[in-house]
Design brief:
Largest sheet of chain B: none
Order of helices and strands of chain B: HHHHHHH
Number of strands of chain A: 11
Strand content of chain B: under 5%
Mean pLDDT of chain A: 92
Strand content of chain A: 25-35%
Structural class of chain A: alpha/beta
Largest sheet of chain A: 7 strands, mixed
Shape of chain A: globular
Number of strands of chain B: 0
Number of helices of chain A: 10
Shape of chain B: elongated
Radius of gyration of chain B: 20 Å
Number of helices of chain B: 7
Oligomer: heterodimer
Low-confidence stretches of chain A: 1-10
Order of helices and strands of chain A: EEEEHEEHEHHHHEHEHEEHH
Chain lengths: 270, 241
Amino acid sequence: MPVMREARPARGAFIDFEPEATSLEIRGFGLRYGDKPALNDLTLRVPRHRVTAFIGPSGCGKSTLLRALNRLHDLNEEVVQQGEIRLEGRDIHAPEVAVAELRRRVGMVFQAPNPFPMSIYDNVAFGLRLQGGLSKRRRDDIVEWALRSAALWDEVKDRLRASAWSLSGGQQQRLVIARTLAVGPEVLLLDEPASALDPISTLKVEELIRNLKASLTLVLVTHNMQQAARVSDYTAFLHNGELVEYAPTDTLFTNPRLARTENYITGRMA
Amino acid sequence: MDITSDIHSQHISRQFNHELEELKTHLMAMGGLVEKQVQDAVRALLDGDSTLAGQVVDNDRAVNDMQIKIDDECTRVLARRQPAASDLRLVLAVIRAASDLERIGDEASKIARNAGELIESNNGTRGFVEVRIISEHVRKMVRDALTAFARFDTELALKVVQEDDQVDSEYQTAMRSLMTFMMEDARAISPVLSIMWILRALERIGDHANNLAEYVVYLVKGLDIRHTDPDDLDQDMLGEG
C-alpha cells in the first residue's frame, strides 16, 4: 500500500491564505462533551462577506463548531469550552455580551426547515415584534425586504396570511432564512441547509447564499462536497475535531496540500 | 501534495478505480500505437519501403478513433463522478494528452506521405542522416513522456521538457544544411522540400512530447508549467507541489 507524502507534518493545520477582512476569529478553540473531546485547539479566521464552508466526515466536529459560533452550547451543562471566538474583534463569551443580541447578529439556519406554526408574515415579523418599537408600516417594509432578499417574495406576496406550513420544503427553508435576515444579522450560519431539499430547491438556496454574501458573512456546514465546491469561497476540512486544511475553495478542490484532504474529497476514506 | 501512480486505485468506489485505470490504460495503448506510427513512418523513408508508408497513412484512422474513445470516457467520468483534486487532474491530463497524441499521429502520417513521394521519385538520400538523428531524438522524447505519464515521474518529464530545446536547435542546423543543397542544385529542390516537411513534422512531434511531459507535472504536482521557461523549471519543481 503506497503512503502518500504529507506536504507538512500531520500535526497542525495547513492554512493557505490570509483573509483581507475578518468577521469571526477562532483562536485555540476546544470543546468537549464531558470527557469526550469534540474539537481540539482550532485556530482560523472567517473572512467577512465571503462564504466559508466547513466540510468533513460525520462526527468531525463541523456542526459543533458552527453551533459554538452563536453559543448554542450554552445551555448544555456537559459542554466545556476553551479558547476564544471573536466577532469583529470582540470575544463572544465576554460577560457584557448578551446571548440574544449575539444571536441577532449571528443567525442560524438548520437542516430541517423549522417555520413557526403561524402565518408566513408572522414568521418573518416574529423577531421584529420581539424587539418591539416598530410601526406596522416599517415592519411591513422589513418583512417585504427580508422575503425579497430570501428570493421568496414573488412566490408568497399574495398569501402572506397563509400558514407557513402550506409552503413547500424549499420555500420553508427560504422563509426561515428570511426570518433570520429580518433582524439584520451580520453573519449567517447554515447547518446543512439544503440536505432535506430536492435538487431545484437546493439550487435556489445555493443561489440565495451566493447573493447574500454581498451584505453578510456566511458559514456553511455541509457533507455535500459538490455543494461546498459550488457555493463557497473558502473551505475548511475538519477531521476528528481538528482543522486539517483551510484554503481557497478553488485550491482545495483542485490541488489540496495534504493527503488527508485529498483522500476525503476524492472519496478515498473508509 | 505529490501523488503516486497507484493513487487512482484507492477509492471507496471500486468502479471509480476501474474507470480511472481504464483511462490510463487506454491512453497508454494510444501512446504505444502512436509511437509505432512514428517509428514506421521514419523506417519507411530510410528503408525505401512504400508499402509500410501506406500502412502508416491507413493506420491514422485507428489513432483518431482511440482519441474519440478516450474523450468519451473522460466525458462520462466528468458527468457521473464529478472528480476532484488528483482525480480531476488525471481526467484533464488524459484529455489533453490524447489530443497531443492524436496530433503526433497526424505528423507521422505526414512523414509517411512525404516518404511515399520520395521513394517514388527515387531521388537519392540527401537529408536522411538528419532525419535519422532527429527522429531518434524525438522518438525518445515521446517514449520518455509516456513513461513519465505511466509512472507519474516528474523528474523524467522535466528531462523531456528540457530536451525540446536541443531538438529545436538540431532542426535549425538541419534546415540550414538542406538550404545549401537547394542553392547548389535546382533539381534537388523538390526532394529536399519533402525532407524539410518531414523534419518539420519531427520537430512538431518533439513539441507534442514536450506538452505530454508538462501534463505529467500538472497531474502529479498540480502545477501548470506551460509557457514557463525551461531554465526556470528546476526552481519551481523544488517547491512543494
